[in-house]
Amino acid sequence: MSAPAPRRTRIQKRNRALILDAALEVFSRQGFRGATLDQIAEAAGLSKPNMLYYFPSKEAIHAELLEGLLDTWLDPLRGLDPAGEPLPELCGYVRRKLQMARDFPRESRLFANEILQGAPRIDGLLRTDLKALVDEKAALIARWAGEGRLAPLDPHHLIFSIWATTQHYADFAAQVELVLGEEGRDPFPAAAAFLDALYARALAPDRAQG
Amino acid sequence: MSAPAPRRTRIQKRNRALILDAALEVFSRQGFRGATLDQIAEAAGLSKPNMLYYFPSKEAIHAELLEGLLDTWLDPLRGLDPAGEPLPELCGYVRRKLQMARDFPRESRLFANEILQGAPRIDGLLRTDLKALVDEKAALIARWAGEGRLAPLDPHHLIFSIWATTQHYADFAAQVELVLGEEGRDPFPAAAAFLDALYARALAPDRAQG
DNA sequence: GTCTATATTAAGATAGAC
DNA sequence: GTCTATCTTAATATAGAC
Predict the structure, then answer these.
(1) CATH number for region A65-209
(2) Every domain of chain A and the residues it spans
(3) How far is the CA of B33 from the C1' of D6 (A)?
(4) What is the pLDDT of residues B32-78, one digit of tens each?
(5) Is residue A69 within 8 Å of residue A111, measured between CB atoms?
(6) How far apart are CA B106 and CA B29, in angstroms?
(7) Cα of A7 to nearest chain B Cα, Å
(8) What is the fold of A1-56?
């Protein structure tokens, strides 16, 4: 489906990477319309015309970021293993997803910005790739619940809750930091412990009745 | 602290309300920088200069929206009653917060946009009003947990998880709709049932050990 | 590949008539 | 209170020299 990777010189690779990194920084904070090429060029350390030598337009830069995003973003869910034990599998998923929020907060915010706006530029990918994967994993979770190996919770909404609780630490980091009031301190260890306990409790299957 | 409410004619009240409603619509989707006065004026059904007769600037419109927001937004948490039963109190809080997301999705997105950008315009209010209320209610939850009437979960992170899971249905509505694939249908009843079950399970106190 | 200079449109805001 | 016209700056993008 994707075009073949074009051959690029070292300098092209370097500058494209600089631009994409700078654009991620700016788009993830300001959204598409709020970001300006000036801000991105400055963050990349390039002149605006030089930046536009590498990408034809603002839209093209944004599109390239979004394109690469969803695949990485769904990796943790892909890793949910039908052959594993339900409870550890789901707790592992939560842990991986939280780790993504910690390691890639800008990607999380870029995605959040896009969805907040109504997903105008990523709608197609969500309808196909995202929905297919979620439906597949929701079916797996439903099967586990049906076998009594997991609490009987709506699988789609369970996945939503995992997305929400983990991405919260990237998307709402400013608020988390202010509320916890320990502004230098890393909130992720406590978040990981909390989420593990939350889901371990909520997902444990009902005891077999006599 | 607030200035006294200025006296206003009927036409002033009507037009200010039209402008604020239109601005909420636009700011909540596009963020502060992404929104334009042209979009807001058009949505309000007023000319741009006429709109600027009622508000001195774009910033002033946005500031007025944010100012009114936090109070309403925190009402559900304020309702957490120290005299009530812990489990029903918390489930009631979740229910009220979800109801807010359903009834005021634009307010939720406005808030989300502001935090995503690093809370530049609402930082002060969060440090004072928000933090004070959260700390107060977290202490209450900690007390309940200490008395064995609630599961021993970190109260601050518990509150974060409730914010995240409920606001998700407003902020990420586009994605929720696409993933559920029933595009006309209201996802809130199922969400309410799921969240009630999730928190009822997770928050139930450990059984007393012999 | 990179730069300066600039064309073009959009956006925030104001002037002044009515 | 509302409008048309307009000022000013910012923003996307391009031309063309080096």
Answers:
(1) 1.10.357.10
(2) 1-56, 65-209
(3) 24
(4) 999 999 999 999 999 999 999 999 999 999 999 999 999 999 999 99
(5) yes
(6) 8
(7) 35
(8) Arc Repressor Mutant, subunit A (1.10.10)
